[in-house]
Amino acid sequence: ISLRNHKPLVTVAARNADVRPRAAATYKAAVLGAGGGIGQPLSLLLKMSPLLSHLNLYDIANVKGVAADLSHCNTPSLVTPYTGAEELAESLKGVDLIIIPAGVPRKPGMTRDDLFNINAGIVKTLVEAAADYAPKAWINIISNPVNSTVPIAAEVLKKKGVFDPKKLFGVTTLDVVRANTFVAQQKTLRLIDVDVPVVGGHAGITILPLLSKTRPKTEFTQEEIEKLTVRIQNAGTEVVEAKAGAGSATLSMAYAAARFAESCLRAIDGDADVYECTYVKSDVMQELPFFASRVKLGKDGVEAFVHTDIRGLTEYEEKALQALIPELKGSIEKGINFVNKQP
Ligand code: NAD
Ligand code: LMR
């Protein structure tokens, strides 16, 4: 499996900073929630992509200034703001990729599931519009609780008759980014070389880093495994507490989301060597219709599941995998029921 995805984005940015617009920039993306804590730095990183010709920024507030500001960067994409529900449809027409960070973030003491009541409705509305105006676009869901918002999106798309399970993704890249960083620090490895698959979901114990599958092959003591696993699972909370009421991870999330978006665009563009861990419709785990694991991305979305990651697990990982099933199953059902109980 190639580690190309693990090249830092700065490589792309540096490459792009001094080039003129070129024929390669042909794809269109929309960021829904572009004025927010994640939306703004994510839009900046997307503005650096050599693959984007158009970057549509949608939010219910605060997006005109963000777009005016970004539009002065001398990189290929044309940045256009769309504000308010009446401009949502226009923001989506003709786009290849939709990225959704719209919604409220956690405060200290909250779980991601505590965001369900507000964010479920926001995601439902935005995905309904995506189904109507960009039914073939790839959709990257960032809004929490991801374990439920992705099933919500799937149900909405199904109801609209346009669900393509290969093109709907929960963005769990931040878990991989964190796992790679913490392992490299702990083991004094070169960050660029480290690759830790993270499977399951995106909340607490449903986040399962498979440290035994770390590349390059790395030995851990049991104590190191337990400490690293808990730190990766609680890393979001670590940021929420440090921000002390001012929100959750935004900058590292923007970095992770931009990396995932770049992987999607490269796959759409025909790169045959794109792999990412992501939360998708899956039959990797019989009991769980949605599951995060490493997939190969191709021109039409998920092309294959990398089953080898979750084979031959250690006893600790196998137990943790069994333990996450009930919680993840409950979150998936909660999302599905939310859409189906509505008229
Ligand atoms: P934020 O409050 O800073 O920004 C959210 C933005 O969404 C705001 O600009 C707001 O105006 C906009 N918004 C709200 N309702 C909207 C609607 N109906 N249509 C369009 N835009 C709307 O929050 P943030 O820090 O950017 O976090 C956003 C979400 O991302 C949260 O739910 C957070 O939990 C989640 N998140 C996920 C991950 C992950 O790994 N998947 C990581 C970090 C944060
Ligand atoms: C994260 O992992 O940082 C996000 O899911 C935000 C959060 O609420 O922790």
From TrEMBL:
Residues 172-338 form the Lactate/malate dehydrogenase C-terminal domain. This is Malate dehydrogenase. It is an enzyme of class 1 (oxidoreductase). It catalyses: (S)-malate + NAD(+) = oxaloacetate + NADH + H(+). It comes from the Eukaryota. Homodimer. The lineage of its organism: Eukaryota, Viridiplantae, Streptophyta, Embryophyta, Tracheophyta. It comes from Selaginella moellendorffii (Spikemoss). Transmembrane segments: none annotated. Coiled coil: none annotated. Substrate binds at residues 106, 112, 144, 178. Belongs to the LDH/MDH superfamily. MDH type 1 family. NAD(+) binds at residues 33-39, 59, 119, 142-144, 253. Residues 28-170 form the Lactate/malate dehydrogenase N-terminal domain. InterPro entries: L-lactate/malate_DH, Lactate/malate_DH_C, Lactate/malate_DH_N, Lactate_DH/Glyco_Ohase_4_C, Malate_DH_AS, Malate_DH_type1, NAD(P)-bd_dom_sf. One of its GO terms (cellular component) is cytoplasm. The active site is at 202 (proton acceptor).
